[in-house]
Amino acid sequence: MSKRLVRIRPESAFITLENKSGIEVNAVLQNGKTYFGILNSVTNEHLYMSDTRNHAHKIALPDLFEIILDVENIEKVVVPK
Known about the structure:
Blueprint lengths: L4 E4 L4 H5 L6 E6 L4 E9 L3 E6 L4 E5 L3 E7 L11
Antiparallel strand pairs: 1-6, 2-3, 2-6, 3-4, 4-5
């Protein structure tokens, strides 16, 4: 059975997610801490998201290990190789 999860490396985050605001994401940091919430926006330097309590988080891309998405939450994500 195939999995629906897509893993995005921080260096591909802006290209892959720049127009995908409103989707659910898991942001896994280099230290292992994970944030779950709704993607607000992504720039070349930061990922902006709101958690389930509607607290805003600004995460520097170098602090990220990976971003995990469920394919069911988005129409199509093209992950650069």
